[in-house]
Amino acid sequence: MTKGGGFVALIGAGPGDAGLLTLRGRELLAAAQCVVYDRLVGDGVLAMMPPEAVKINVGKVGGGHFVPQQEINGILVREAQKGRFVVRLKGGDPFVFGRGGEEIEALNESGIAFEVVPGVTSALGGLACAGIPATHRGVARSIHVVTAHTKEGGLAHLDYEALAKLGGTLVFLMGAAAVPEICSELLRAGMPESSPAAALENASVAAQRLIRGTLAELAGRCAAEKLKAPALVVVGGAVGFAEAFAWKKFLP
Amino acid sequence: MTKGGGFVALIGAGPGDAGLLTLRGRELLAAAQCVVYDRLVGDGVLAMMPPEAVKINVGKVGGGHFVPQQEINGILVREAQKGRFVVRLKGGDPFVFGRGGEEIEALNESGIAFEVVPGVTSALGGLACAGIPATHRGVARSIHVVTAHTKEGGLAHLDYEALAKLGGTLVFLMGAAAVPEICSELLRAGMPESSPAAALENASVAAQRLIRGTLAELAGRCAAEKLKAPALVVVGGAVGFAEAFAWKKFLP
After folding, report:
1. What is the rounded distance in angstroms from the CA atom of residue A91 to the CA atom of residue A120?
2. How far is A103 from chain B (nearest CA, A)?
3. Per-residue pLDDT, A1
4. What integer pLDDT is reported at residue B206 of this predicted model?
5. What would the 3-class secondary structure string for chain A be?
6. N vs C: which end of chain B shows fewer Cβ within 10 Å?
7. Among residues A194, A143, A135, A214, which one has the least CA distance to residue A172?
8. CB contacts, 8 Å: A17 with chain B
9. Is the pLDDT of residue B200 over 80?
10. What is the pLDDT of residue B2?
């Protein structure tokens, strides 16, 4: 796998639960000489990092600072140029608001070979862990995923009128702080107050928490129940199945 | 795992490549007493079915017939009621146009416990295998997934004007037969003729094939190159990265 000039594997770690890492993801992670990881990677996945690998946390929360994307790009290039097999481990999927493309552009500029291992995105797989089907025959015929992270040019660019007209499942990643804005804009765009809506905190892991309500109620409920990041917001008829389709209750 | 009255695990097998099955998916598949599988499940994943398990193919292509959804629901209930641990193995993700919700409704009616194991959907992970990022900063800020399968109420219900206005990555699953309709409707809805577009056949596996063109060219190219199902159609600026981000060339 490792070439003379190093090699970088961009791996999607999935929504959090270690069981949702892919087989290819685990195989490559086990071979890593250097792991550059995010704050959204689940603890169970982090525990699979080889003990002898160099580990670089680029998503520090404790110290209150995040490593800028350009610096992350530089770390990947530098570590690969040492001839290492570098794993870039990201929460969810590298290409679903994961900025994997920017890292690949940096690798291309330096002539470094790479592989992409897609992961289960929390936007779909995370919902499934809370019993919410992204689609359901006759109820949710399309899926629309956006980010509420304003630095990514998220909410400011959204055409809420178009989204409201589609009648599908609307998923807003990184939505914890934006629940009031999302709900009020969708209501203004013409979605019914009674539309099923929910916020999902810590999708897939033991701390998972689903806060449900109508589109008119959700912001108040999230405030009352102190919703915390990371969370996604989901709106649409599919949310109405959450109780009937909940399956974690069946597990030991 | 198996309870007195049986248990059903709905597992997403991913886009085809066996390496894109999840760890939890493989763990449960290895324990299956009965596997009910689809035609879109990859051969490498099928090879992981336990030799002693009862295997029921509900997606026969050779004989030219498909098992109706209601019959599949009945098979799951019947096999679980024998006290078996049943795995329902689906291509992609059970909830992304996978009709997993209908199967769960049947299980609920019969009081059968279940688990859902999300998979990597071809709509996102399949694209990644062809070097197409579902999102890219400044170019593709949202993702919209629909099905072109008319029996699922796909194309007939689509609001192309709304889709065309969103400026994100548009993914049409099951799109092989619908390329001309998709392209002409998006053009009619106002998308520029020069919009990057592609059809992706057999995402993620050795037979993967990407046919690219502008929105105006794609239908002609797919006809000339005899695009075959299963294929997805993807439209938007992200398609323009396919060449620069292609990574399979780096693999041995």
Report:
1. 9
2. 10
3. 42
4. 94
5. CCCCCCEEEEEECECCCHHHCEHHHHHHHHCCCEEEECCCCCHHHHCCCCCCCEEEECCCCCCCCCCCHHHHHHHHHHHHHCCCEEEEEECECCCCCCCHHHHHHHHHHCCCEEEEECCCCHHHHHHHHCCCCCCECCCECEEEEEECCHHHCCHHHCCHHHHHHCCCEEEEECCHHHHHHHHHHHHHCCCCCCCEEEEEECCCCCCCEEEEEECCCHHHHHHHCCCCCCEEEEECHHHHHHHHHCCHHHCC
6. C
7. A143
8. 24
9. yes
10. 41
B51-72 pLDDT, tens per residue? Answer: 999 999 998 655 556 789 999 9
Q: Which two tokens stand for residue B200?
A: 């992706």
CA distance B120 to A14: 9
pLDDT in tens, A174-189: 999 999 999 999 999 9
CB < 8 Å from B in window 127-186 of A? 127-129, 131-138, 141-147, 152-154, 157-159, 162-163, 165-168
Interatomic CA distance for residues A157 and B173, integer angstroms: 26
Q: Give backbone dihedrals phi and psi of A241, rounded to 5 degrees, phi first.
A: -90, -5
State the distance between the two ends of chain B, measured CA to CA, in whole angstroms: 39
φ, ψ of residue B146 to 5 degrees: the values are -130, 170
Which amino acid, one-letter code, is at B150? T
Give the pLDDT mean for A111-119.
98
Q: In what order do the strands lie in the sheet with A85-90?
A: A54-57, A34-37, A85-90, A7-12, A113-117
Block residue for tokens 């109780």? A243
Name the residue in chain A with its Cα closest to that of B98.
A135
User: Residue type for A3, please?
Assistant: K
